[in-house]
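Aim 2 progress. For MatE family protein, the working sequence is reproduced below.
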Amino acid sequence: MIDDNSELSYRTISESETDEDYKLGRKHPLKTVLSLCAGPLINNFVKTLQDAIHLYFVGVQYGDDGVVAVGMSGYVTMIATLVSMFGSVSVPITVSRLVAEKKYDVSSQLIADLIRMGLFVTILLSGTLTFAAKPLLIYLGMTKELIDDTVKYCYPFLFLSGLMSIFYSLCSALLGEAKAFLSAVFQLSAIVISLFIFDPIFIFWLKLPIWSVGFAVVSGPVILSFVLFSFYFFQSKKSNIDSMENQNLYVNDNKQKSIAKKLIHLKFVCKPTLSMIFKKFTFEILIVLKDSLPFVLTGFAGCFPPIFLVKYAILAGDNAGIGGAVNAVVSAAVQPYNVINTIVIGLVQGLAPPASYAHAKRMFSRLLKLLLYVLIVPFMVTIPVTPVFIFWPDKILKIWISGADSLELSKAMVPPMFYTNWLFPISEALTGFLIATGSGALANVVPIARGVGMLAGTFGLYYASDKKSPGVVFMSFMTQDAGLLLSSIFCALPTIVKVVKSMKYDSVLQEGLIN
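Predicted structure tokens for this construct:
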């Protein structure tokens, strides 16, 4: 039996072990997590940074009204973006499991299924949201002067979400093949195209109306969806790994290892074809949809309960005569909050592929080590930055808004968002662990508890207070985090116990075979 931490001086790239096997199952658990989280981490961080910089550009050119319009549009566009990224957690898990089982044809068909499934769902949802956008913004309390521009700003996100779905699905498939770096390159390139090419052209050079700027934001993923689609569906049919297996190639020195690595990374293990798009759906797509449910529920828990939170916070502000300031704080405060949490999500996404692989291979000791590292690493992000947003939120929000009333109000509204936000990594790691070990049904409980926690806090705090304190309403972030933590521990504990028992059973069985 090979020890989880062992590093061989050479290895055979053969039918029994591919490069993906080594990356998912043989590297040190910490190195595995860090290497596989690199793509999602960089993408998530730069994506939220893109949103923050984009909002800054908008504030410079269009003022606080532009910030409110773009910020509030997020409650419409995030639903379309969420659905377009539905497979970002489950696809890497499923693809990595199929790679572990050497089912390359099935994984190829799965990718084709994701393309047509994503197009169908996003087109259906976009049509619905197009009609729902204006009533939703009216419900949130936006001024009539800004509603029309805000709705038009949402259109590119809604109408082009199908192409965005193709892009994110294929990037997730790359992660499942342990090609995290290549996935990161594509996602970073999409952000660079949007932020540093089309954003400046639309906002500062052409000086287009605020409603048209949404096209700049989606330009990167839309353009690269065609490139990535071509890479996957028009590659040569013969895998480089297959040709290397036929030669029984041994990698013994650094020079050969470097050459072999380059050869392997030029091609993909999954080789979908255009004809697969018209074939019968594979059973694996049902597994992806089932395992995607916690991610989608988490996303909706992050969409709909905050809508009520914002509604009642603005209502409290209107009762106190500061509704405009509350609008500005809400639009700006979500930027740093999202930056921190998406970094955490990126770090945790490094768990899914190797954990799924380890579970499929019954490498239970490695599985628990992976979970331990994923529980520890995110705290390096949350713990140092949390005090900044608790004690000096106005210094941060000054990047996007300039009103003195809004900045003063931020001192009461922003800290409750971060008092217990350091608990978020625990729930994310345990949820990812549940999905990777095939306990997706239990993982569905966690986002539901999150949403219930925020809704209970929102209504309870608003009606229990003087109905004029938006800062008190924002304390519902704490009830949300409490629901997250308790539900994730409650759901994950039985699975962890089961894994420990399986590990002990395998150990006893192995000792018996040896004796």
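The chain has a mean pLDDT of 80. This observation will guide construct design in the next reporting period.
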